[in-house]
Amino acid sequence: YRALKRTLSRIRRGGRRREPGTLIVLRHGESLWNFNKTFTGWHDVDLSDRGHREAEHAARLMIEAGFDIDVVFTSRLKRAIRTAWIVLSEMDEVYLPIFKTWRLNERMYGALTGLDKIETMKKIGPEIVQEWRSSLKSRPPSVSKKSEYWPGNYRKYADLDADDIPVTESLEDCTLRTHPLWDKKIKSDLRKGRNVLVVAHANSLRGLMKMIDGISDDDISTVQIPTGIPIVYKFDKHTMRPLKPEDDTCQLHTNGAFMERPGLLAAALRREDEWKVLDPAFAKAMTDRADKRREMSNVEWSLAKLEAERAAAAAAWTGGEGEGEGVEMYEDDGSDVRGPIVFVGEEEEKMEEKGAREGEEAVPAVPLVASSACVVPSKDGEVPIRKDPVVVIIRHGKTENNKLGLFTGWDDVALAKEGVEEAKAAGKLLRSQGFEFDVVYTSWLSRAIETAWLILDEMDSLWIPTIKTWRLNERMYGALTGLSKRMVKQRYGEKQFKMWRRGYDVRPLKASSFSPSYPGNDKRYVKYLRDARISLSETIIRSVEARLLVVHRKFPKSESLRDCMDRTIPFYVRRIVPDAVERGKRVLISSSENAIRGLLMHLCDIPQEMINKLDIPNGVPIVYDPRSRCIKLLDDGSGRNPLEVHDFGPAAGKTRGGASSVEERDRR
């Protein structure tokens, strides 16, 4: 099979060597500590409002340029993780894999962490502080291991050897730890033709660029990484050396091309803020425009917003009251030098503008009613962290399709406002009950991915690894996709409707090969799904249409409940159990109703005649204890029984012994 795969790949390329992928490096948006000029390093602070806008702008630039991302690498710090999430959300590609690694963390500033930069210079002296910041090999004083700023005190680094957790770092130390990531992962993906996005920090990105461009020790400190501006690298397919851009869009000593002139975004954001203050009509127009976002695709919205930002930038460039007022061509980027970005061809006139750097940092039994069922009581005061292995399963928050009663299946719809709040509430509830997670599994559907993201965000655990798989997707509803349940009843009758919706082995009408709801017409499945067999008929049809060989997988055109379970249960048994459960990890699974039915059918030995009578409410955590095989619900502290608050369907009415779930809870 592998030999055939390689042969088909060579045929498709015409025997030519594969073109390497494109590398895009992006520094995270402005953080809260960038804003107030505080040494940050490995301390985990979030983005400021401006940082959010910078991340959105970066995504819009990539959309406009037509870049297609295949894989994302980022650090374990939330300012970089959130930037990556914002970028993928804008690009409608949250299903892409994101690898979070400490090797891309910012430089560790030791005992300087948490100190105000300006005040530190006044107390210690600018010469000493600048030596710590700008020298390649000089390290600031070490942080105490008892300090709140030592990374070893945090769970997110528990997998690292003690020697890998720094108490301080020089710029060289930061650069050296990025080498293995480049050599073993990023370069390998690029060689395979994958387009790679790296979202990190000024100093860790500087380390990558030093390797890629072969920048000398003396010159590396002059390289600047502005926020919100993607830098693009192309590579020679024979040597994997970076190619020089045809225009002068790269700075001195580098081959990475800026996607936009640095300084324009800062000017646009300043002018937009000024307009909102001076002109209430403009502020209302921007609000109205945001409200209309649901009427546009993410891509359409992003391009429209990009045009608005450029209009503001143009006004800032030409509309200053005083002569010479306009766009600053550089800002303190948090690296260890302050000065202008020197572009190729501008060396002589720009060299005179170098100055001292002062500024921001780089920043029969049925589930829930078995004899072992119980409700976990709420707790007051400090709650101990749960250390035992656990599997928490949650259905995504409500979507507009859920509210309208539409069959959704594999269609990728976003959470409704209510769904967002449900996911956030679930995260708060889990945190209040002492839950922590070691790994997250979710589907390739954005409603499930966003639910997992919002839960982790509420639990301050965005660094947790998240594994996305199509095998946890909702059931594929075929030609019913997008139709309302009421419409299907009217067209096909109540009996047929119930058979399609609740029958265990009955598949709805198949979707056409050319239907928008067929997964074979969705890029994410065509490009990335590899663990499904090849469809000969679809391969012939698409090869004839394209006039070249197009290998097509056998994607589902319709699924019964059994079909959905036949892909969900094996994934749990063969992947989640050995990789996580048997290793004592605490697991969160965010998915859709029918995929969760499959999991509960397996976990609780539910007979097939009962499983279709179980409903899974949106946004309600279902807790499974692998040791006791006990299914639990969480008490939200309201005093109400969760089984009475949430509708789990007729299957959740009685326990084995006939006692109500309320009585069972009272006995416990």
Features:
668 residues, alpha/beta, Rossmann fold, seven-stranded mixed beta sheet, six-stranded mixed beta sheet, 25 helices, disordered C terminus
Helix content: 25-40%
Basic shape: globular
CATH topology of the largest domain: Rossmann fold
Gross CATH architecture of the largest domain? 3-Layer(aba) Sandwich
Taking the alpha carbons of the first and last residues, their distance comes to: 55 Å
Low-confidence spans: 317-338, 348-367, 369-374, 654-668
Radius of gyration: 27 Å
- CATH H level, superfamily name of the largest domain: Phosphoglycerate mutase-like
Number of domains: 3
Largest sheet: 7 strands, mixed
Mean pLDDT level? 83
Number of helical stretches of at least 4 residues? 25
Strand order of the largest sheet: 7-13-12-8-11-9-10
Strand fraction equals 5-15%
Mind telling me the CATH class of the largest domain?
Alpha Beta
Give a count of the beta strands, DSSP E runs of length 2 or more: 13
What structural class do the secondary elements suggest? alpha/beta
